[in-house]
Design a protein that fits this description.
alpha+beta
């Protein structure tokens, strides 16, 4: 609306100057008409220079946040010219998966000469999933807003992975899976080694997410810091956690994801080699097949690697299924 008003005012002034000059035929009338005729060419030249020296880039391509928490995606606008940009308009499209809900909104910011500005977009959701943010276009205007130029049409995007928090209520299920490593034979046919899983094999300092039941109170009092027990697990055991995420109720799906991530966390904390596998698409005809995706749960990439799979994103490096102890985290949450 502002650009339309500016263009209308310019046309009114140009028409008035064109009528004023034949009536008075003075130098002032001529200069006013000439200035109004030359002005668009100067503004077009200024816009061309500014567009050539303008750029935009993502501050972050992907962000992982907890459910009901805000994740921030940033887009940096860089103006290297000597002309300020009074109006840079960004049109954004937000798509929430797996529902496919789409929303649009527009952000307008000024960018001073030879400087940069960061446009931040906050994303949150009450359900787990992936939210994709696409830049439909970035529109740059001249100093007066008479002309504009559209850039970066659908060339910038970012993903926000929304995952559940680790829940201690599923730690007992993880302990049960650990016990399977001492009883079940893997697909390789080899019996597990190294004794019974769950035996205390060491101690370490308390870390966020550790169960209070693992606390060693005597050592904690002795060293004046929280010390927890480290449980043993068969080094030869590989766990593949599976889950059916095809349920249409997002609340039930969130519960299944929480159970899956929590079990993976506590199995990993117990020293197991843990993988998670879920269907690549909402239709589930198999748990771990060529249509499935798998991610290793580790300290280095525990949240993001697992979120890549849980949110139906691409993931390379599917491990061989040979030798896995298959563990279904359970049916639909009640």
């Amino acid at each position: 609306k502002g650009a339309a008003v500016i263009k209308l005012l310019y046309l009114i002034l140009l028409a008035a100057a064109a009528l004023f000059w034949p009536l008075y035929k003075g130098d002032v009338a001529f200069l006013l008409l000439a200035a109004l005729i030359i002005l668009p060419f100067l503004l077009a030249a200024q816009l061309a220079v500014t567009v050539h020296m303008f750029s935009a880039e993502n501050e972050n391509d992907h962000v992982t946040v907890f459910r009901n928490s805000e994740g921030e995606v940033g887009i940096r606008l860089i103006n290297r010219s000597i002309f300020p940009l009074s109006c840079v308009k960004i049109r954004l499209r937000t798509v929430f998966m797996p529902t496919g809900e789409v929303s649009f909104h527009t952000v307008t910011v000024p960018v001073p000469a030879r400087s940069s500005e960061c446009v931040s977009v906050n994303v949150s959701s009450e359900h787990c999933g992936r939210t994709d943010i696409f830049v439909e276009y970035i529109r740059v205007s001249d100093i007066m807003g008479l002309f504009s130029w559209t850039l970066y049409r659908k060339k910038l995007s970012a993903a926000v992975h929304i995952i559940p928090r680790i829940s201690e209520k599923f730690s007992a299920l993880a302990e049960y899976f650990l016990s399977l490593g001492g009883e079940a034979e893997g697909e390789s046919g080899e019996k597990p080694k190294n004794g019974t899983p769950g035996d205390v094999c060491g101690f370490r300092e308390f870390a966020p997410g550790d169960r209070l039941s693992l606390m060693h109170y005597k050592l904690s009092a002795r060293f004046d810091k929280d010390i927890v027990k480290v449980l043993s697990v068969n080094n030869s055991s590989k766990y593949l956690l599976t889950a059916d995420l095809s349920h249409g109720d997002l609340t039930i799906r969130d519960e299944v994801l929480c159970r899956l991530m929590s079990c993976a966390y506590y199995l990993n904390a117990g020293g197991a080699e843990v993988y998670a596998a879920v269907p690549a698409h909402s239709q589930c005809d198999g748990i771990y097949t060529e249509n499935g995706l798998a991610a290793q749960y580790s300290d280095d990439a525990s949240y993001f690697a697992l979120a890549e799979v849980l949110c139906e994103s691409s993931f390379e490096g599917i491990p061989e299924a040979y030798g896995f102890i298959m563990c279904d985290v359970g049916k639909e949450a009640e």
